[in-house]
Amino acid sequence: MIQLYVPGDGPLHRLGAGTKLAALTVSALAVSLAPHTPWSIAGVLIAVIVLYAGARLPLRILAGELWRLRWLVVVLGGALALFAGPAVAWISTGRVVAIVLLAALLTLTTRMSALLGVLRRLIAPLGRFGVDTESAALTIGLTITMIPVVVGFAAQVDEALRARGARPGWRAVVPLMVRTLRHADDVGDALAARGAA
Fold first, then answer.
1. Distances in Å between the alpha carbon of 61 and those of 66, 141, 171?
2. Cα torsion for 60, 65, 66, 69, to the nearest 10°?
3. What's the Cα-to-Cα distance from 101 to each of 8, 61, 82, 97, rounded to whole Å?
4. Rounded distance, CA 69 to CA 72, Å?
5. 153 membership: H or E segment, kind and range
6. Are 179 and 156 in contact (CB under 8 A)?
7. Is residue 2 assigned to a domain?
8. DSSP labels for 94-151?
9. Nearest 10 degrees: CA dihedral of 7, 69, 153, 141?
10. 5 in a structural domain
11. How far from chain centre, in Å, is Cα 18?
12. Which helix (H) or strand (E) holds 89?
């Protein structure tokens, strides 16, 4: 399984996993549901960049996250600009980029064990209704960490296609799905080996 956590002593590293998870949830809902203008989305993206700087992560990490999102921006933004106009394209693409960057920031500054601990406590009451809280917490945690992982896979597929002289597009969907499913199989095998699945 890809380890996304980057050790550090910045303010976000010291912040509790529960606080960060709650902040991600609220921020994602606010970015997704609140009405936005092109200027407000620009402000959201600037705020996300400031959070990365405040986390005291190396600049190359933010640059890498943005680089992995480049084709999402090009494809999604281009399609929306063509069919819905530049303003809608900027707002919608900006929303997606901001949420993916926030999810990546959570995984970069939070140990998986700490995140799972918080999720277990949140889901614990469901145990009374027969829910396997351990598996549910692990599933949610893996889902959060998979967001930046799949974005990374998309960047790798794109680079591989371009290296062979092929244009990225719909043909990138199949290799992306194959890599994602293979990764899911590897994660499942690792969990089974540890007795977690």
1. 9, 21, 28
2. 150
3. 18, 11, 25, 6
4. 5
5. helix 133-163
6. yes
7. no
8. HHHHHHHHHHHHHHHHS-HHHHHHHHHHHHGGGGGGT--HHHHHHHHHHHHHHHHHHH
9. 50
10. no
11. 17
12. helix 86-109
Q: State the Rg of the chain over Cα.
A: 18
Helix/strand/coil percentages in the chain, nearest 5? 80, 0, 20
Give every residue of the chain whose pLDDT is below 50, as ranges.
1-3
Number of structural domains (the chain) is 1
Q: 156-180: per-residue pLDDT in tens?
A: 777 776 777 766 555 566 676 777 7
Q: Which domain holds residue 120?
A: 11-193
Q: How many CA atoms lie within 13 A of 72 on its CB side?
A: 25
The vertex-144 CA angle with 140 and 147, nearest 5°, equals 140
Domain presence at residue 161: yes
CA distance 196 to 189: 10
Distance, in Å, from the CA atom of 87 to the CA atom of 127, rounded to the nearest integer, reads 46
User: Does some domain include residue 6?
Assistant: no
Instruction: Please write the tens of the pLDDT for every residue from 107-136.
Output: 889 887 787 788 778 777 877 777 777 777
Q: Is 33 helix (H, G, I), strand (E, B) or coil?
A: helix
Helix axes 38-54, 86-109, angle to 10 degrees: 20
